[in-house]
Amino acid sequence: MKIVVIGGTGFIGTKVVNNLRERGNEVLAASPSTGVNTLTGEGLAAALEDAQVVIDVTNSPSFEDTAAMQFFTTSTGNLLAAETAAGVGHHVALSVVGSERMPASGYFRAKVAQEHLIENGPIPYSIVRATQFFEFLKGIIDSATNGDTVHLAPALIQPMAADDVAAAVCEAALAGPQNAISEVAGPEQFRLDALAHALLSAWGDSRRVVSSLDAPYFGAKLAERDLVPFDGDAGLAATLLVLCLPRQPALA
User: Fold this and answer.
1) Confidence class of residue 231 from pLDDT cuts 50, 70 and 90?
2) Which helix (H) or strand (E) holds 28?
3) How many helices (H) does the chain have, and how many strands (E)?
């Protein structure tokens, strides 16, 4: 089976490509660096020739509201049109748990718009929503930093390893189209502010965490459960956070 991974040379995409190849699939890693550009359409038709499945793990290079919306809607629209022309039978997309609960953030509005395009499009689909990656936690902390303080809400977070995210995307691709959204999350829940404090301590970082219910998360005010699955149907990854850290933080 030929599978095309859009964003296949990126952080998650590389893991998806390697995972699928190890299972014996024919996989094409598609990205601007390999001559495939979903924003302009360059190289799409040739890349999708004879493809049965297309996996989209691209991400907007900007979190700015207009740029993110333009990226996800243009890229997804071009991709769905090219898939229709090529006769692709399954579109798989990676999204984010809680996107629909954070409309104040332009980035998450753009992810919801992407999901709607897929749901209302012509290609049978599977959308996999994942929680935040372990590898993205430092980026979350950095984005909330002002001087030597980090302002974060005490909302729940259930992060997961990027390898587990990639594995969940591969499972969805190989299982066939579900025409539905599934969710996957890490095995443990933490409070975002407390987790940031523990991580900074583990890393020897002197920044101080200030907990605030009003602290923005990429432009959105967080309710307690905005970043975690609401129901018990989410798949749980196996990798514990402490296994991905240089040393165990004091999370208690």
Assistant:
1) confident
2) strand 26-30
3) 7, 14
At position 47, the amino acid (one-letter code) is A
Select from 84, 164, 77 the least CA-distant residue to 128.
164
What's the confidence (pLDDT) of residue 242? 82
CB 13 within 8 A of CB 163: no
Residue 72 φ then ψ, to 5°: -70, -40
In angstroms, the Cα distances linking 216 to 20, 143, 158, 169, 196 are 37, 10, 18, 29, 15
Q: How far is residue 36's CA from residue 140's CA, in Å, rounded to a whole number?
A: 30
CA distance 179 to 228: 22
Cβ contacts of residue 186 below 8 Å, gap of 6+?
A: 131, 134, 158, 159, 160, 161, 164, 236, 237, 239, 241
pLDDT for residue 251 is more than 50: no
Distances from the Cα of 177 to the Cα of 31, 89, 128, 165, angstroms: 23, 8, 11, 18
Largest CA distance in the chain: 54
Per residue in 60-75, pLDDT tens?
999 899 999 999 999 9
- Looking at residue 123, what is its pLDDT? 98
208-224: average pLDDT: 95
- Tokens 């599977």 sit on residue: 126
Read off the pLDDT of each residue in 49-69 and give the average, rounded to a whole number: 96
Look up the pTM and report it.
0.94
Query: What are the φ/ψ torsions at residue 167 (nearest 5 degrees)?
Result: -60, -40
Q: Work out the burial of residue 70: count CB atoms within 10 Å of its CB; fewer than 13 is exposed, 13-18 middle, 19 or more buried.
A: middle
